[in-house]
From TrEMBL:
GO biological processes: protein N-linked glycosylation
Family assignment from sequence similarity: Belongs to the glycosyltransferase 2 family.
EC number: 2.4.1.117
Listed InterPro entries: DPG_synthase (IPR035518), Glyco_trans_2-like (IPR001173), Nucleotide-diphossugar_trans (IPR029044)
Pathway(s) the chain acts in: Protein modification; protein glycosylation
Keyword flag Membrane: yes
Source species taxonomy: Eukaryota, Viridiplantae, Streptophyta, Embryophyta, Tracheophyta
GO MF term (any one): dolichyl-phosphate beta-glucosyltransferase activity
GO cellular component labels: endoplasmic reticulum membrane
Name this protein carries in UniProt: dolichyl-phosphate beta-glucosyltransferase
Membrane topology: Single-pass membrane protein
């Protein structure tokens, strides 16, 4: 029996499908024990999310705060109209967001001055903030126009994974970069991921031959993922980081190894780049909405055979992190859902995108 299967059974008891099948046909039934009840709750929740990757919802819109006109959202299945999209999830980030956005916009403008073909957009997803995050975000839309900065309002808090999924599905870039609102990773490091993604895409397209002269080659069409890594900084970080964050980190490493296999050291670093083709496959299927969506991304990359690379990035811990002790049960809950959903076949992976 695999280690993680034994762990799940020790924590939640054997996964008893009997009451689930009876409930689906005749309505809820009383289970025999607390462990069985927990087990059945997991199955019910996994069953509820079986079609979540289809994301049937009202059409998303952007609002131009200058003209108050609504701008239709593009979709990930549409052709790219920008070179790069930066996806920034934000929940109660009124204090950290302005500095990060100032640094990001300054960098992007400098790139545009050097290279007119460098086109970009920044998509901020307000994940149900209760502070002034929305106001701060719209100030940047007013300053830079809705063509360059856009805000998606989720209304209520769904989780970081859901916010990023929403931003990815409604972006316009050939390349899509997710990054945190705290500015913990310097935006200039996107060039490291950008160079790696181009190198891997060209290798995948022509098995190592130069594709620069091939007019059919488009970076957006080759599925590739590159993750920023701070593994080279971990020894120093362990000495300064709060104990529960070290505990979460080590536990997360173990979980990734058990759930997705070896190869990725630190998937929870919030600095990741995808080609449009990769994002279309991944974020049309991802179901986890909060802390463990990174693990599901790694799992889906392996299922789709999307090459993943890790590139070292500069990172510093910024005060105000949302990670705390309450994150532990939430992480375990999502990992159990993921295991049950995929192992039982309830979570089917769509290849139609």
């Amino acid at each position: 029996m695999p280690i993680y299967t034994k762990f799940l059974e020790n924590q939640f008891g054997p996964f008893n499908l009997g009451p689930i099948l009876v409930a689906l046909k005749f309505g809820p039934v009383k289970v025999r024990s607390t462990k069985e009840n927990r087990s059945n709750n997991v199955f019910f929740e996994a069953y509820k999310r079986r079609n979540n990757h289809q994301h049937i919802e009202v059409p998303a819109i952007f609002e131009d705060p200058n003209s108050l006109k609504q701008v239709p959202c593009p979709h990930i299945v549409d052709p790219a109209t920008k070179y790069i999209s930066l996806i920034i999830p934000a929940f109660n980030e009124q204090h950290r967001l302005p500095g990060a956005l100032d640094e990001t916009m300054n960098y992007l403008q400098q790139r545009t001055l050097k290279d007119s073909s460098f086109t970009y957009e920044v998509v901020i997803i307000d994940d149900g903030s209760t502070d002034e995050t929305k106001r701060v975000a719209f100030e940047f839309v007013r300053k830079y126009t809705v063509d360059k900065v856009r805000v998606i309002l989720l209304g209520r808090n769904h989780g970081k994974g859901e916010a990023i999924r929403k931003g990815m599905l409604h972006s316009r870039g050939e390349l899509l970069l997710m990054l945190d609102a705290d500015g913990a990773t310097k935006v200039t490091d996107l060039e490291k991921l950008e160079n790696q993604i181009h190198a891997v895409a060209k290798s995948e397209y022509h098995q190592g031959d130069s594709s620069n002269s091939d007019p059919r080659f488009r970076i957006s069409d080759v599925p590739v993922a590159v993750f920023g890594s701070r593994a080279h900084l971990e020894e120093k970080a362990l000495a300064t980081r709060k104990w529960y964050r070290n505990f979460l980190m080590k536990g997360f490493h173990l979980v990734v190894l058990l759930a997705s296999g070896p190869g990725i050291l630190l998937p929870q670093c919030g600095f990741k780049m995808f080609t449009r083709a990769a994002a279309r496959k991944l974020f049309s299927n991802v179901r986890l909405k909060r802390w463990c969506f990174d693990v599901e991304l790694v799992f889906l990359c392996k299922r789709f055979k999307i090459p993943i690379s890790e590139v070292s990035v500069n990172w510093s811990e910024i005060p105000g992190s949302k990670v705390n002790l309450l994150s532990i049960p939430n992480m375990l809950w999502e990992l159990v859902l993921m295991s049950v959903g995929y192992r039982t076949g309830m979570w089917r992976i769509s290849n139609s995108t």
